[in-house]
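A reminder from the course coordinator: this example appears on the midterm review sheet, so study it carefully.

Given structure:
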């Protein structure tokens, strides 16, 4: 058995259990322009965004927590 063969199947790929939200999806959900979300991101407001290549994503849990914090502040 070669080293390459021994390594096969030794570890199974882990699956990401996070639900991700795009800028388009959040803008549609909140019924606001995408530019507003980009402005919030630039000023450090809103949910935490992650860059995946050239795309921005936010975890659904982060978006929900941020929205809940707005609700509590009101």
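Designed residues:
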């Amino acid at each position: 058995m070669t080293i390459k063969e021994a390594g096969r199947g030794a570890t199974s790929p882990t699956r990401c259990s996070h639900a991700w939200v795009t800028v388009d999806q959040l803008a549609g959900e909140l019924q606001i322009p995408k530019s507003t979300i980009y402005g919030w991101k630039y000023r450090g407001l809103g949910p935490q965004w992650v860059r995946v290549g050239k795309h921005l994503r936010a975890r659904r849990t982060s978006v929900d927590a941020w929205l809940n914090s707005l609700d509590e502040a009101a």
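The beta strands are 20-22, 50-52, 55-59. The helical segments are 3-7, 23-30, 34-43, 60-73.
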